[in-house]
Amino acid sequence: MKSSTFEGLYYEVHDGPSDASTVLLSAGLGGSGAFWAPQMEALTARFRVVLYDHRGTGRSDRDLPKPYAVADVARDMAGIIAALGKEAVHVVGHAAGGLAALQLALDSPSRVLSVTVINGWSRPDPHIARCFRTRISLLNDSGPEAYVHAQPLFLYPADWISQNAERLAAEEVHHLAGFQGRDNMLARINALLAFDIDSRLGEIACPVLISASADDMLVPSLCSRRLAERLPNATLDVAPWGGHAFTAMVPDAFNAALIAFLSGEPLSC
């Protein structure tokens, strides 16, 4: 693994086979490249994998441009691709990262071989807005501790939360220590709430995998179904269980579907 920075963005390059194509991974609201740990072994066996910490999070610079929008995340991704010396890569994004991948496909189509959107959407949704406004209230009224404590409710299935209380308590300490800060979190949430490319989906010509979980508490799977219906070249894959973080809950099934898509093979769904 080789790590580097580009204009304040921390990124890592994990080499795969010598002739492998490149896959750029972009995390969700938390922003950390470490989110993709359940995917790394499977992906690096087939691809050169690049992950990074979003601007404002993790090991990247914490200053965000003002105003801040999903298009800023897309520009950062384009910058990393250029820094790699690559004309185009496969882009895989979870939630916020998936929205930015769609924006990148609109703004810089020559940089994108394919897009994978995990638990994404194309326009404001009432349920997503209700969840995020609840989280904003927790952050503003009760502070980061309450925000982080409530986070599993939006990420994981209820039965899994019940069975993993000790693990979640330990993770809570870790997430608090690395919390991106109130102002950055609010700016990033508001950027997601403002995102709307619904009228432009027909412009995205590259292959797109739309991946979702039927029991996602934060992003209704109907948002993913709408994306798949309106994108010109989309494949839909819906997991039956796993919540918003199903890529970590059922990684083997997700990894198999992702690798099949990136390799141009049919999905077994």
Could you characterize what this model shows?
The chain is of the alpha/beta class and 269 residues long. The protein has one domain: Alpha/Beta hydrolase fold, catalytic domain (Rossmann fold, 3-Layer(aba) Sandwich), CATH 3.40.50.1820. It is built from eleven helices and eight strands. It has helices at residues 37-44, 70-83, 96-107, 126-142, 144-155, 158-163, 165-177, 182-194, 221-230, 246-249, 251-262; strands at 2-6, 9-14, 22-26, 48-52, 89-94, 112-118, 208-213, 234-239. Helix 9 links the parallel strand 7 (208-213) and strand 8. The longest helix has 17 residues, at 126-142. The model has no long low-confidence stretch (mean pLDDT 97).
Give me some keywords for this one.
269 residues, alpha/beta, Rossmann fold, 8-stranded mixed β-sheet, 8 strands, 17% strand
Rg over CA atoms, rounded to whole Å, is: 17 Å
Largest sheet: 8 strands, mixed
Structural class: alpha/beta
pLDDT < 50 runs, ≥5 residues = none
How far apart lie the N and C ends? 33 Å
Order of helices and strands: EEEHEHEHEHHHHHEHEHH
Instruction: Strand order, main sheet: write it out.
Output: 1-2-4-3-5-6-7-8
Main CATH class: Alpha Beta
